[in-house]
Write a sequence for this structure.
């Protein structure tokens, strides 16, 4: 009986991964800028979700829970690594430059120039379409901090990824 | 129409539109890793159960005495701080045992008595309710304990304020709630996660995170991690730990700093 229950739980979880994995992986890719890191982050997130799957699966919004785990995991991991990191003026290598390489390098690399928290704010606000208050709750920030970081981060991106912001470019 | 926010939103979507993970591998690896996390939790719950019984008796409270005590025939053992219980749900009594289902038993002791036992406090709340002043020690089949834990200890939702504990050696950075929060704040502690979620009377939210001493230098010297405008403040170092107080929805920087500075170490 317990085996049957476990299999059902695993199957439910696999369905959940299939339904949500694409969006979560893309979020991770935008946050990390690297396919391997994105896979690691996504897998770690789902591992934590599975560890509490009985509880999570009965929650109102398991997807929101998984997204929050991913964001927190990303921020926590980056904080741990921060002391070992130094700013760089060179762009990281593009991990998968099989199509439209210039645009991909520009956007992902530009995002990597931002602090992890600023990046997470932008991804939450403009990729996941989270509101200011939702983003604040997700990231443990005040709403004022989300607005400030969002505005500042977009301003920083503007010269780095000019093609994204056509209004300030001559066409 | 082509405002920067819309342009950026569109660019993000175009950038990752064709990116897909290997779903089968993702779920298989996650199940494998998640199962390891579950096993570690189970181990933490069950390790030291025998030692707990010994320590329990040595602490001056006979296990048989408590187990033979019932809710109706004996008054509380008189721990300081034990509250006057409300009419609903039924008042808790030290020594009372409750059938939690699935072979699980919950032994009720006062918080003072719990200090003499080798148990792990798994959750605690400063919200006052019919469970305030008491600790329930959950025991039974390890999988059932694990499941009950994963369900968030449902009995504690009926008995607000009830601390939940399992037999076993402490894990996490601390085994008891390390600080008192100032008036106006209530906190729900999850010691296994080394933290608490706190709410102020006006609805503001903050998180307390217990951190190891070796991280203190990084946290206390980096303006990006803690201090004005960073969204976090840290306490002084206290033995082997310190606490970062991190902002949530509706909490101002000033409120956060005030909370951090008014935490009082109790253990």
């Amino acid at each position: 009986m317990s085996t049957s229950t476990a299999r059902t739980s695993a199957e439910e979880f696999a369905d959940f991964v299939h339904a949500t994995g694409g969006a979560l992986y893309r979020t991770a890719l935008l946050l990390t800028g690297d396919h391997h890191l994105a896979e690691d982050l996504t897998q770690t997130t789902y591992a934590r979700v599975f560890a509490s799957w009985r509880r999570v699966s009965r929650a109102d919004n398991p997807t929101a829970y998984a997204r929050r785990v991913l964001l927190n995991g990303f921020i926590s991991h980056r904080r741990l690594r921060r002391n070992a990191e130094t700013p760089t003026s060179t762009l990281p290598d593009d991990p998968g430059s099989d199509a439209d390489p210039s645009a991909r390098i520009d956007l992902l690399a530009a995002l990597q120039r931002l602090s992890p928290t600023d990046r997470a704010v932008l991804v939450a606000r403009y990729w996941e379409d989270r509101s200011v208050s939702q983003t604040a709750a997700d990231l443990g920030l005040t709403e004022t901090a989300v607005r400030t970081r969002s505005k500042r981060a977009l301003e920083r991106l503007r010269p780095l990824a000019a093609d994204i912001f056509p209004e300030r470019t001559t066409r | 129409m082509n405002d920067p926010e819309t342009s950026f939103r569109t660019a993000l979507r175009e950038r990752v539109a064709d990116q897909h993970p290997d779903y089968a591998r993702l779920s298989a690896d996650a199940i494998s890793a998640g199962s390891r996390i579950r096993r570690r939790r189970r181990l933490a719950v069950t390790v030291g159960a025998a030692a707990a019984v010994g320590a329990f008796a040595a602490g001056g409270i006979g296990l048989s005495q408590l187990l033979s005590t019932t809710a109706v025939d004996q008054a509380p053992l008189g721990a300081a701080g034990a509250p006057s219980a409300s009419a609903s749900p039924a008042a808790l009594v030290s020594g009372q045992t409750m059938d939690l289902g699935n072979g699980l038993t919950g032994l009720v002791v006062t918080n003072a008595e719990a200090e003499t036992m080798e148990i792990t406090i798994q959750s605690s709340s400063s919200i006052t309710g019919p469970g305030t002043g008491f600790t329930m020690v959950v025991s039974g089949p390890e999988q059932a304990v694990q499941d009950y834990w994963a369900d968030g200890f449902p009995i504690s939702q009926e008995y607000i304020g009830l601390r939940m504990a399992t037999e076993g050696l402490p894990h996490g950075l601390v085994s008891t709630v390390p600080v008192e929060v100032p008036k106006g704040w209530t906190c729900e502690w999850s010691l296994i996660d080394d933290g608490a979620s706190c709410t102020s009377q006006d609805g503001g939210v903050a998180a307390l995170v217990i951190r190891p001493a070796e991280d203190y230098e990084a946290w206390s010297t980096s303006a990006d991690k803690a201090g004005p405008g960073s969204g976090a403040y840290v306490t002084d170092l206290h033995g082997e730990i310190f606490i970062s107080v991190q902002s949530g929805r509706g909490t101002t920087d000033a409120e956060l700093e005030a909370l951090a500075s008014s935490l009082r170490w109790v253990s």
